[in-house]
Write a structure and sequence with these properties.
This is FAD-dependent urate hydroxylase HpyO/Asp monooxygenase CreE-like FAD/NAD(P)-binding domain-containing protein. By secondary structure, the protein is an alpha/beta fold. It has helices at about 10-30, 85-90, 100-120, 170-185, 215-225, 275-285, 290-315, 325-335, 335-345, 355-360, 370-390, 395-410, 420-430, 435-445, 500-505, 560-585, and strands at about 5-10, 35-40, 125-130, 130-135, 145, 155, 160, 185-190, 205-210, 230-235, 235-240, 245-250, 450-455, 460, 465-470, 475-480, 480-485, 525, 535-540.
């Protein structure tokens, strides 16, 4: 009898799993015919987020040369390497281009079609353009996957959930703001994928409060300016007259750091050095567990500092006051943060060449401006300085820190759920907007259509309006009849709008304190609250405690998503290849 595998989600993660199934099947699948059912209401390849049917004004957040869907020999995995073109090689683009998302959708569709072509003849893929509603079935028996609009479920020997970013129910604060908006005729747009948001209620010329200064804000900015007919002439924005006035703030009060605008040269820092597999294994082996801030963060700081100073001393030795070999020895021996700071102060004369992660994370902490207009000038100067530094190879230690962040993330993913702060910090430093987007922000600010609110932005609903304040500008407040939460919904299974995830949660699937779905770090099987892996259900993606950085992998960085996809694909093929009942009987 033919085996039945259901993969829920046909976006980049589902496509990546399909590629790994095709790569590993010649070695591992010796069973009968196999039907793979891909369930997704959106087209395979791009899925919802990277579908081709979206505004051509929306860019990728990565350069074309930094996007690949194919493995290489830097990936630690049991399966075979199947190399393929990066986005820029496939599309014939300049590698430094930031492509639009429509092009990425076409690339992903091509990867999907290639994976289909690479599957053995006895494997057939069926795409079901429906939403999966729930998964039912006993632990020791076939599963049933119910689809919206279908009277009968899909039978499944195994199920893989690769559903990507999910919509979420509002949290208590958002619920109160939304209720207030309904009562007073205001507009409240909760966290969402910006390309799916209905922005028509944001009126031309009207003030709009925006909480969030990351990538969701960049999309919002584009759709409400160029998307409404405005245009840029050099560094000047020419409005169409249909734009609202955006008042934006966030916890930090500044935009994410610009993408770095130059290439790496010379030797890379030898990573990992202070946070590698041995340190991760030691943390996992602690009987009482570990605390991120107390036990993990010092290792992260040490690793990022090592990457930074290795580059500074080897590429820019004229800005140091000590031989690298001496510094490296003393840096490794430094017992605490105070020792490290004293060493750095003696060895690196210019404070601009020192790595201060605390100052990077809180750039406006303690900073106060006398007026709202003064703050506009101050933040424009901050963004301009960031753009200069991020495009100047004299500060290539910043690029080394980026490489350090990738290395650290690859290790931390093995620790499971370490809280949301780290993921936000990583995105702020390593996954910011392209430089041209920040230049557009500056142009919009000078045109008066983008106004900065400050750090620690607080929003209240009173007197029939929304009101925003920030300690950055004492005494300043702005009122508006519209509020946009410019960020993606939190990936928690308890508040997911998706009925499939909610039912898994209700049935007893384990969640972390942050609300992520617990999975076996070895192969992605869903864990129950007793810690038992489900024999027939797997999950990968940002809603699990094995989430990985970014949507895509840079070539030759050993991407952990590739490792996860390969491990899950191999486990699934081994189970389906005639050994399913034997394995499940253990």
């Amino acid at each position: 009898m033919r085996r039945q595998l259901v993969i829920v989600g046909a976006g980049p993660r589902g496509t990546g799993i399909l590629e790994r199934l095709a790569a590993n099947a010649p070695e591992l699948y010796a069973g009968p015919g196999l039907d793979i059912h891909l369930v997704d209401p959106h087209p395979p390849g791009g899925g919802r987020i990277w579908r081709q049917a979206q505004s051509p004004l929306l860019w990728m957040n990565s350069q074309a040369e930094d996007v690949t869907m194919f493995t290489d020999d830097t990936v630690t995995m049991a399966g075979p390497v199947r190399e393929g073109p990066t986005l820029h090689e496939w599309a014939g683009l300049d590698g430094r281009t930031f492509p639009d998302r429509q092009l990425q959708g076409r690339y992903l569709r091509w990867v999907y079609d290639r994976a289909l072509a690479d599957l053995p003849p006895n494997v057939t893929v069926h795409h079901h353009p429906h939403r999966a509603l729930r998964v039912r079935g006993p632990r020791d028996g076939r599963q049933q996957v119910w689809l919206e609009g279908r009277p009968r479920p899909l039978p499944a020997d195994l199920v893989i959930l690769a559903v990507g970013h999910q919509d979420a129910e509002l949290d208590p604060e958002q619920s109160e703001l939304s209720a207030y908006a309904r009562e007073h005729g205001l507009v409240h747009l909760p966290p969402d994928f910006t390309a799916d948001s209905d922005l028509s209620a944001l009126e031309p010329g009207a003030p709009v409060l925006v909480r969030g200064f990351g990538l969701a804000f960049v999309d919002l900015m584009v759709l409400l300016t160029e998307g409404r007919g405005g245009r840029y002439e050099g560094d000047t924005y020419v409005p169409s007259g249909r734009e609202p006035v955006l008042y934006v703030g966030s916890r930090r009060g500044v935009p994410y750091h610009s993408k770095i605008g130059y290439d790496w040269t010379g030797d890379r820092p030898p990573l990992p050095r202070f946070l590698g597999p041995a340190e991760v294994a030691e943390l996992l082996a602690r009987p009482a567990g570990f605390d991120f801030r107390r036990d993990v963060w010092p290792l992260v700081e040490k690793e990022l500092g090592f990457a930074h100073y290795h580059r500074l001393f080897t590429a820019h030795p004229g800005r140091t006051a000590m031989a690298w070999t001496d510094f490296e020895e003393k840096y490794a021996a430094a017992g605490d943060a105070a020792d490290t700071q004293a060493l750095v102060a003696a060895a690196v004369p210019d404070p601009a060449d020192r790595l201060d992660l605390g100052a990077l994370d809180h750039p406006l902490e303690g900073v106060r401006y006398a007026s709202h207009d003064d703050f506009q000038e101050g933040l424009r100067a901050y963004v301009e300085a960031d753009l200069r530094r991020r495009h100047d190879p004299a500060y290539s230690a910043d690029l080394a820190v980026f490489l350090g962040l990738l290395s650290v993330y690859g290790q931390l993913v093995r620790l499971g759920d370490i809280g949301s702060w780290w993921h936000g910090f990583f995105s702020y430093l390593a996954s910011g907007p392209p430089g041209p987007r920040l230049r557009q922000m500056l142009a919009l600010s000078r045109a008066g259509l983008l106004r900065f609110v400050g750090a620690g932005m607080a929003v209240t609903a009173e007197d029939g309006v929304f009101r925003a304040t920030s300690p950055t500008v004492p005494g300043f407040s702005v009122e508006a009849r519209a509020l946009v939460e410019a960020r993606l919904p939190e990936p928690t299974i308890g508040r997911a709008r998706d009925s499939l995830l909610r039912e898994l949660h209700a049935e007893g699937a384990a969640e972390t304190p942050e609300g992520l779905l617990r999975v076996d770090p070895g192969d992605g099987r869903i864990l129950d609250r007793a810690g038992r892996p489900h024999p027939r259900r797997f999950a990968l993606g940002p809603y699990t405690d094995a989430r990985t950085p970014g949507a895509f992998t840079r070539p030759r960085t050993g991407g952990p998503a590739f490792r996860q996809n390969d491990a899950t694909a191999r486990a699934v093929l081994a189970l389906l290849s005639g050994s399913l009942e034997k394995e499940l009987a253990r």
